[in-house]
Amino acid sequence: MTEPLLSIRELRVEFPTRRGILTAVDGVSFDIAPGEVLGVVGESGAGKSLTGAAIIGLLDPPGRIAGGEVLLKGQRIDNLPPEGLRRIRGKRIGMVFQDPLTSLNPLFRIGEQLIETIQLHTGMNAAQARDRAIALLVDVGIPAAERRIDAYPYQFSGGMRQRVVLALALAADPELIIADEPTTALDVSVQAQIIALMKRLCREHNVAIMLITHDMGVIAETADRVAVMYAGRIAEIGPVRDVIGRAHHPYTQGLMGSIPTLTATAERLTQIPGSMPRLTDIPTGCAFNPRCPHVFDRCRVERPELLPAERTLAACWLYAADRRATA
Amino acid sequence: MSTAIVEQPNEVFAGTAGPLVKVDHLTCVFDVSRPWLERTLAGAPKQMLTAVADLSFEIARRETFALVGESGSGKSTVARMVVGLLSPTAGQVTIDGVSMSDPRLAAAREKLRRRIQMIFQDPFASLNPRWRVDRIVAEPIRAFGITRNDAEVEARVSELLKLVRLDPADGRKYPHEFSGGQRQRIAIARALSANPEFIVCDEPTSALDVSVQAQILNLMRDLQDRLGLTYLFISHNLAVVRHMATRIGVMYLGRLVEVAPARDIFAHPRHPYTRMLLDAVPDLAMAGRQRKPVDGETPNPIAPPPGCPFHPRCPFAAERCRTERPHAIVTGSVSVACHAVEEGRI
């Protein structure tokens, strides 16, 4: 295997509050290979967006990285001073957020925003940057780019805005794009266009994508591998087909069963009993143990690490070596 | 515990024949012009937005009729007109034989109100944060004068909370103490408290996580079976609609393009827009496969295209589609408004 592009080791994100320290991301580790699409899924509060924000140093205070390492091509970036991180952000790691209007300044023309970003990171002169901006807009599928480059964000529809945001993220030829719910605010037909576009750009520019979303359907057709998060931890990680089709962690199994599909014939959806634990009282041992149908004594006291289960890794004691031997 | 209070099947109306809800040529036009002075100075004409145009459908008793469509298709506007939160510009809604707009039927309509309830998308906005849950759930009971006896109201509230699988002790808490899914259960309990038979659900699970959504959808189906409810279910999520609906109406730019039994729509979508929507939905079975993206976006509803509103994006558009608006053609249980389907071109 080639050297990973991005490597996260035992990442911990904490929020100090009056009632004590909340651990929102707890010991998360994964790698992203160059050109790979890694999907990160989970329900609200699972810590998926915070993991993304921590990687690029955009945690809102008082949130802070309390432990672990973030390595970009083997070089630590989590302990860089703000100025150093700022040079990486936008240049080597691009970002796409859910609402394109939060990424675009409504008072500036699309072109000005693109040209500013390009000049900041590449040192091109204004004319070169403008040509590159037009090329980028053509690349993300904006019709009549030479004319539209002088339009304001409000003159674009939601789908077109998200295309502009993708162009901005690509402006400095990054190696990685962190996309946090990039299609959630869009209608299905537009969503399909944006996903097809992201896949093409990923292939053509050889960019890796960390795709954070709650929508398993989007992951299913976009990602190479997927990490399922629960209560700030990775419950299962593996190739997308295996995690969806042959999930091993009881939470992943429940989650997949609870998603209504266009093809299933089941009268009732699978229901996971109970609800997500609050960050103030995450159960000891496995965080999922009070809701798990297969819970046994070890789950209540000892936290499981990621254990191999066929082609995926599942944080579940069901797959411990001693247990599999007896099973 | 007398479950009888809640579980009165709606036998009073069970004998009545015909659909429970009838929507006839419903139209809603909004005036979206700029303020009068600005408009006059600029010499600009009035701008009208037709949110819903000439919409007709029926809902049978105990069925779930779903309206699907993308944002701006007018599905929520229909929901608001059906429950009476918005007056239609033209056309009418008839529920159990009583017109919702005929001024002569005001008294009959008053009686009807109790039988219609609504569940909204955002359970954070639809519950009064300053009221305790028991007061929220009891409000329709008191408002419709079902009982004024405090002990009875209290008994009924705790029954309702149990019905939606909450603890009766939760009645003493405030909405902020609950998660999104629990709040939606409270909203359902409130909707059920006046013993309605028809519930309009506007994106009831769109704000919820999938595992919570599964709990709420299952609960809504159980309640329908137990209480004989009729649902008008509004959603943009086709997979959710497939799970809930008996019949489905697909909306595009304020018009119904196709109405068919749920099974038919998913097995044999007829209208090109329905086909496109089904192709565009990301599905778990899609792992590793590419779905078909469609060109274009929904046009501006202030200036909809002439002819068939879908023709600029339609792969089957012909000359007739650009000029003449297609009318719904009914064959059996399916109704489709498309020239290409009518002419047998697709």
Layout of helices and strands:
The complex is a heterodimer of chains A (327) and B (346).
Chain A: E1 6-17, E2 20-32, E3 37-41, H1 48-55, E4 64-72, E5 75-76, H2 82-88, E6 93-96, H3 100-103, H4 110-122, H5 126-139, H6 145-148, H7 158-170, E7 176-180, H8 188-205, E8 208-213, H9 216-222, E9 225-230, E10 233-239, H10 240-245, H11 250-257, H12 297-301, E11 307-309, E12 312-314, H13 321-326
Parallel strand pairs in A: 3-8, 3-9, 6-7, 7-8
Antiparallel strand pairs in A: 1-2, 1-4, 4-5, 9-10, 10-12, 11-12
Helix pairs in contact in A: 4-5, 5-7, 7-8
Chain B: H1 11-14, E1 21-31, H2 36-42, E2 48-59, E3 64-68, H3 75-83, E4 90-95, E5 98-99, H4 106-113, E6 116-119, H5 133-143, H6 150-163, H7 180-192, E7 198-202, H8 210-227, E8 230-235, H9 238-244, E9 247-252, E10 255-261, H10 262-267, H11 272-280, H12 319-323, E11 329-331, E12 334-336, H13 339-342
Describe the structure.
The complex is a heterodimer of chains A (327) and B (346). Chain A has 327 residues and is an alpha/beta fold. Chain A has two domains: 1-223, Rossmann fold, CATH 3.40.50.300; 227-327, no CATH class. Helices cover 35% and strands 23% of the residues of chain A. In chain A, the strands form two sheets. In chain A, strands 6-7-8-3-9-10-12-11 form an eight-stranded mixed β-sheet, with helices on both faces. Chain A has a four-stranded antiparallel β-sheet with strand order 2-1-4-5. The longest helix of chain A is centred in the middle third of the chain and has 18 residues, at 188-205. Chain A is globular. The model of chain A has no long low-confidence stretch (mean pLDDT 90). Chain B folds into two domains: 3-245, P-loop containing nucleotide triphosphate hydrolases (Rossmann fold, 3-Layer(aba) Sandwich); 275-346, no CATH class. Chain B is built from 13 helices and twelve strands. The longest helix of chain B has 18 residues, at 210-227. Chain B is globular and about 70 Å long. The chains are: A alpha/beta (327), B alpha/beta (346). Chain A binds chain B through residues 43-44, 157, 159-160, 187-193, 195-196, 199, 214-218, 220-221, 240-241, 244-245, 254-263, 267-272, 275-276, and chain B through 70-71, 179-182, 209-215, 217-218, 221, 236-240, 242-243, 266, 276-295, 297-298.
